[in-house]
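seq as requested:
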Amino acid sequence: MSADINKIEGSKEEQYIQLLQQIKGLVEYETDLIANLANICAVLKHQFNWWWVGFYLVNNNELVLGPFQGPVACSRIQYGKGVCGAAWKEKKSIIVTDVSLFPGHIACSSFSKSEIVVPIFKNENIIGVLDVDSEHLDHFDEVDKKYLEKIVKCIPEFG
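struct tokens:
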């Protein structure tokens, strides 16, 4: 597949539908996990212009920063801590409309106002999370959740 990914127009769902196909084509034949995660971050950041998008991977019972796009981030997150740690512990996606109201929120950036975290499963175990932050309140919804969950499932190394 060409490395060029063009910005997609349309409703948010229409954008995700087309973007999902582009991401599948991008990662389908690449066997390196870091390359795939980095490209997915770049594609999502380019399309939606979110404040921060990236992956944290489970390593020695903590989440360790992986590929991302955006400003400097927290390097390590403990199990159950912050939105990422909570999604890991609860084994489900979490949408936070206002991070200042989330108990124990880890403020890597004061510009982050809302967040969505999607756990990544492999053989029933969580091996990482996709974390997305916006500088706008109430930015994420069920459409984001539905398609971000589909995006992480299309990564060959996690399938």
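The longest helix spans residues 12-27.
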